[in-house]
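Lecture 7 notes: from sequence to structure.
We start with the chain below.
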Amino acid sequence: MIDAIDHEILRLLQKDGRMSATALAAEVGLTVAPCHRRIKELERKGVLTGYRAVVDPAAVGLSFQALVFVTLRDRAQMLAFEEAVGLHEQIVKADRLFGDPDFLLKVIAADLPGYQQFYDDVLVSLPGVEKLTSTIVMKTVKEEAGLPLRGERSGRVP
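Predicted structure tokens for the same chain:
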């Protein structure tokens, strides 16, 4: 069971995954050892699934983003398609959807010619693809954020 302290630990780690156990313990009102045990238990249970650095795409020459809607010919290729998508680093996010289309991919590239090459070389040859519809991201208004673990959902602490 995840209690209010665990929720607060998760909320704080979503904002700063590099926060030290000492600083985290102070924020949630625990000493370091019990706070560290809670973190390890959250990791063991699979609640905390990993830590990563957030990199500015433009700073590393990857300022072009496209959203690609994918419709498959038939559902028999679903697993093969999902496995193939996982092999390509330029596909930075993939969601399987209800209804039509079947998938939404977020693809990143250096520029339009780089995206076109990826489209021509990779996307069109993914297993089972019937139709691809791309739309270019003009501007990211809000980056993917952490989960609403405290108050944001209903004004109360879970």
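Points to note: The helical segments are 4-15, 21-28, 32-44, 78-85, 112-121. Confidence is low (pLDDT under 50) at residues 151-158.
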